[in-house]
Amino acid sequence: MNGRALTIVIGLLLASPVPARDIRAFEPGSLAAIEAAHAGRSFILAFWSINCTHCPEDLALFADLRRRYPDLDIVLVSVDSPEDAETISATLERYHLENVEARVFADEFTERLRFEIDRQWHGELPRTYFYGADRTVRGVSGRLDARAVTRWIERQRHRMAKEK
Amino acid sequence: MNRAWTAIKRVCRDPNTLLVAAPPRRVAALLVLFPVLAIAAPDSGAQAPGAEHLAHAKLSLATGVAFDKNGRLWRVSTEEQYVLVRYSDDQGRHFSSPVRVNAAPERIAADGENRPTIAFGTSGEIYVSWTQSLEQAYAGHIRFSLSRDGGRTFSAPITVNDNRDPISHRFQAMTVDPRGILHLVWLDRRDQSVAKARGETYAGIAVYQAVSRDGGTSFSINEKIADHSCECCRIALALDTDGTPVIFWRHVFDTNVRDHALARLDGASALVRVSHDNWAVDACPHHGPALSIGHDGVYHLAWFSGAPGRSGLFYARSSDRGRHFSAPLKFGISEAQAAHPQVLSLGQDVWLAWKEFDGLNAVVRGMHSADGGQSWSAPAVAALTAGASDHPLLIANGAEVFLSWQTVREGYRLIALDGNRP
Q1: What single string gives the DSSP state of each residue in B403-422?
Q2: Cys-Cys crosslink for B393: which of B138, B193, B400, B404, Cβ 3.0 to 4.6 Å?
Q3: Are B122 and B8 members of one domain?
Q4: B312 in a domain, yes or no?
Q5: ipTM value of the model?
């Protein structure tokens, strides 16, 4: 890291009494960490951007789903950069998603991140992964179909109930 | 202090994980360790070959390049809130000190699909255009400035879009035809906004253009070329042999089929559908196409599709000005994220270049055709980098073809290609 970057970093941190909490970094290794943290439970991992036209509709859907299924686990990963944290945070608040786990790409080598996430994903947004409790994973490109997502959630809940 | 302002400081941009989300006491430790560095931050002074480090915050990789008729290479990029122009007389080994185009800082949209562009008038003018980004989501204005003194000074920027609503006017492309007429095209949300206000649906946004017939002093009223373009993919623009600009873009067919369309901007030709991949998706691919037209008038086209079962990069050619197209040729390794194709034709010699990721490096691979795009060499590696990089660009200086590539690790690179070695 060169001196100017360090200056900026220190300047930002000095001005901030708040440690990073709301929006966490998504870096190499983050995917495995997220998967491990949700081991044995179904969850939705959604990639979005503040510059993606079709992402707000999915954010609204996630907010609605969280109201209907308060125990639904969702991880939202913005593919923007940490310097967009202000906008990301404001957007999530607008959609009442401030309590959902939120991350942001914190590695500008985005090809490396995408390679780790899914080699079949070419960067189109939104991109959403549905992790079943049995670790089946399905990736979907584009705006989600609310009915299909609801069916998936109901199936997961049904399965969980049966196992109990 | 409002919440939005505190949020930005919660994550810092540096990829160094130690510093991301460092708690306050670690900051204190850093200051103890590096007080001198923090005060005496060196600026990017002399420009030694290949020694431009881009790793500091808020520096965009998006670069526009072009050779002028004297073989001088011009490069336009952005830093913080300024558009910068540099030139090189030794094929990219050394560059002049950057000149600021906009004296007043402004927010600039500069990423893979949205890059500043540079072109040259017939009387020595240097034209620069870019997208200013606004506070509102997806919103921007098409900005333009020119130099009449060989790039020493630039005019105060003007906004070219005559609709000034804070909505999307972005993804500009620019060229100058042989008569000296400057053509600017971009993606524009104005019609979608009107439809939305009326409660009507409108797929995608629209392609608009403006022309300047007086060397960039003024622009025509904006004219719509096509309704229903995809929202955030670059527009490919090339000149036909008769001087007519031709554009190639990702279009929205039906309600959400994101295939590609071509149009000759001759005021008479209709939109032609080029690709039939049937990628039906409500998504932003952020993945625009490429177009090149050589002196033989053959159109060479390359694009990306994410259609299930038909995902990847494709190439096609048309030898009758877009009435018929060859069967699309799939190229690149899809599982290696083959992306962001470029095509360049010098007639019989045609080059393709694109980006892949090999697990460690971003790699620009290329293919060459010696028969006008009918057959192709095996793909070969032209350059690679172990860090972030811009999309690759292909540019020509007369009969010489180059890969232009901005990378974080190596800085700006101009790499000569030949028939055997893309």
Answers
A1: EEEEETTTEEEEEEE-SS--
A2: B404
A3: no
A4: no
A5: 0.84
User: In whole angstroms, what is the distance from residue B157 CA to residue B181 CA?
Assistant: 19
Residues of chain A with pLDDT under 50: 1-21
CATH number for the domain that contains residue A117: 3.40.30.10
Instruction: List, for residues A49-65, the tens digit of each pLDDT value.
Output: 998 989 999 999 999 99
Q: Same domain for B37 and B166?
A: no
Nearest to B287 among A12, A110, A123 (CB): A123
Residue B114 has pLDDT above 60, yes or no: yes
Please list the helix, strand and coil fractions of chain A in percent, rounded to the nearest 5, in that order: 45, 20, 35
The 10s digit of each residue's pLDDT in A129-160 is: 999 988 899 999 999 999 999 999 999 999 88
Question: Of B214, B229, B244, which one is at a domain's C-terminal end?
Answer: B229
Q: pLDDT (tens digit, 9 = 90+) per residue, B139-196?
A: 999 999 999 999 999 999 999 999 999 999 999 999 999 999 999 999 999 999 999 9
Whether residue B94 is found in the same domain as residue B14: no
Judge whether residue B19 has pLDDT over 80. Answer: no
Give Dmax over CA atoms of chain B in angstroms: 69
In a domain, A97, yes or no: yes
Q: Which domain holds residue B184?
A: 58-229
Q: What is the pLDDT of residue B38?
A: 30
Under an 8 A CB cutoff, do B287 and A21 touch? no
The label of the residue with tokens 């109901």 reads A154
Tally of domains within chain A: 1
Question: What's the Cα-to-Cα distance from B228 to each of B187, B206, B281, rounded to whole Å?
Answer: 10, 5, 14
Which residue range(s) make up the domain with A136?
22-163
Contact flag B22-A19 (C-beta cutoff 8 Å)? yes
Residue (of B85, B97, B179, B196) closest to B138 by Cα position: B196
> Structurally, how many domains does chain B consist of?
2
Residue at B328 is within a domain:
no
Q: Give, to the nearest 10 degrees, the angle between helix A3-14 and helix B24-33.
A: 140
Contact B328, B375 (CB under 8 A): no
Q: How many CA atoms lie within 13 A of A87 on its CB side?
A: 17
pTM over cut 0.90: no
Q: Flag whether A17 is in a domain.
A: no
Q: Which residue of B has its CA nearest to A119?
A: B335
C-alpha pair distances (Å), B414 with each of B70, B75, B109, B175, B325: 17, 11, 24, 21, 32
A10 and B42 in contact by Cβ < 8 A? no
pLDDT exceeds 90 at position B243:
yes
List of chain A residues whose C-beta atoms are within 8 Å of the C-beta of residue B41: 2-4, 6-7
